[in-house]
Structure formats: structure tokens, C-alpha cells
Amino acid sequence: MAKVTEHIKNAKSTLFSFEILPPSTGESIQKLFDNISPLIELKPKFIDVTYHREEYVYKKMPNGLLEQKSIKKRPGTVSICAALMQKFHVDTVPHIICGGFTKEETEYALIDLNFLGIDNVLALRGDSIKGQRSFEANPGGHHFASDLVSQIYSMNKGIYLSDELQNPTPTKFCIGVAGYPEKHFEAPNLKTDLKYLKHKIDNGADYIVTQMFFDNKKYFEFVDKCRAEGIMVPIIPGLKPITAKSQIYNLPRNFYIDMPEDLIDSIDRCRSDEEVKNVGVEWAIAQAKELIEHKAPCLHFYSMGKSTAIQQIASKIF
């Protein structure tokens, strides 16, 4: 198995990768295997597995009061990564988030990954819990992704939280972080956002994966601005094919991105989601071809649990 940066360094052309969601609680992992098997045939170099934070529900008690309970709707990121590696012999990249963890719990999770031979992680702050106005770190946890990167990088140097360990073994994680061509929604402007991104790189991150975008010009400009700020690590573009008309409203609202006018006009003329999917696939193919022409290191697709459209796209360009 290899690190993401090793795959990129050794590649003779643009690589293919994708991101999946863990199965919902109660679902069989076989359903996931069946869903991504067509994509495995296209030889992805790595697969990202997202991590979903706990949610709070309120259960009415016999006395009429409400009891708050914490639940996880999509558990199992680490075990899914291990299962994918065993079944498909492909590198996996588990998402490690700040929210919901103390620094000690983060260290334990990283130790487990190291024991499993998983050498790649994507370090993210994570979203706020539903109902919170803004992100709140757990007591004893990290507030920022840059601090999480620092902890992982320290473990790579053999520095653990306990200073009583005798000759601890260094880990060897390749650390990815997120980048936002249209800026993170909490940043006042892109320049400020790039400053925070540079901080993550300076703290030890090895590569960047971008938020989805639908206008390649924004990716090219983002790369140029990163280079101008001294950010020289690989920058992997993230792509998401449109498969339903509702997504032209939901994606901008949930991910704070813009949609090109030409794409919206084409989708507005569609009479069914099947027509929308065809438009979305063709748009993503055109995006992918242009990105490959500009020597993008890898095309990273956000599947959101569905692989058919990605298979159609990837089969035509890889």
C-alpha cells in the first residue's frame, strides 16, 4: 500500500479516486461493496471514507420530561477502511475530524489506523452539530483542523500526548486537508481562507482536496493563488456530477458554492431527472477532460452514496 502523495509522484497521468459514505446503521456492508464494485474496475488509487458526527435526539420519558440521547447514523469509518483494503486491495483515506473527539480519543483512533496499516488520513474540523449556531469543540478537543494536523504530524515524529512513553514508534501518515476554491463559508474572503490553508500546510499537511466546484476557472485560479501564497503541495480537484434537479438548489445551500449559468439553463430545460443526470454527466466529463489537459494530479469524485454517474464519467476518461 502507498501514500496518496506517492501515488501522485509515481503517476504518469491524472489519477482517479472517489469518496464514499459509510452505510447507515443497520445496513449491510455488502450493499456498499456492490455499489462501488463497478468503480473498483476503473482502478482508483485511493478511496476516501467520510466520518459523520453524532446527532442528538430527544426521547420523551414516562415523567413527561425529555431525555437527550446521542446517536450516530453512519458509524464504522475505520472498520470500513480496513474492509475495503482487505477486499479490494486499494488504499483508503479515513476522514479524521475535530468535532466529537478529545485529543486523547483522536490519538487512540490514529493508533488503531496505524496498526491496521492505513497510512493516509484527511484531517478536517468537521461540521457543527445540528442545532448549534457554530462549531463547538469537545472539552479537550481541537478547535481547528490546523491543530489536528499538528497532532498527526507530531505522531509522525514519534511525539505522543504522554511524555512518559519510552522510545515511541513514529507513525507515517500522509495528511490531506480540505481547500475551498470559492472560500470556506465562515471565512470573510478568499485571501483570509488561504492564510488558514497555508497554516495547515505549514503544520504538516501533505496535499489538498478541494470542495466540489462546477466551474474549472475557479479551480485554476485557486491553484494559482495557492502557489502565490507559497502552498506547493498537490491540489486535487473535487467533482460531483449533478443527478437530480433538486441538487441545483440543495448543493449551493449545503456547500456554499456557485452554479454556472450555462449549467443551470441546461438543467432547467430538462423534463425529468434522467435528463438532468445526462446533462450532469456530460458537464462533468467536460470538466474532467479540461482538468486532465491542465495536468491535475487526480480527479476526486464525491459519490454521496451513488456510483452510476461516476462510473459513466470515469469510464470515458480513464
Q: Describe it for me?
A:
The protein has 318 residues and is α/β, with parallel strands linked by helices. It has a single domain (4-317), classed as Alpha-Beta Barrel (TIM Barrel). The protein has eleven helices and ten strands. It has helices at residues 4-10, 29-40, 77-88, 103-115, 145-156, 190-202, 216-228, 247-255, 261-268, 273-293, 308-317; strands spanning 15-20, 46-49, 55-60, 66-71, 91-97, 120-124, 174-179, 207-212, 235-239, 298-302. The strands form two sheets. Strands 1-2-5-6-7-8-9-10 form an eight-stranded parallel β-barrel, surrounded by five helices. The chain is globular, with a radius of gyration of 20 Å. The protein starts with a helix and ends with a helix. The model has no long low-confidence stretch (mean pLDDT 92).
Attribute tags:
alpha/beta, TIM Barrel
Précis, in short:
Helix content is about 40%, strand content about 20%. It is of the alpha/beta class and about 325 residues long. The protein has one domain: TIM Barrel (Alpha-Beta Barrel), CATH 3.20.20.220.
Which strand order do you get reading across the main beta sheet?
1-2-5-6-7-8-9-10
CATH topology: TIM Barrel
What is the terminal-to-terminal distance? 21 Å
Helix/strand order:
HEHEEEHEHEHEHEHEHHHEH
Protein structure class: alpha/beta
> How many strands appear in the DSSP assignment?
10
Put simply, the count of helices is 11
Task: Note the main sheet.
Answer: 8 strands, parallel, barrel
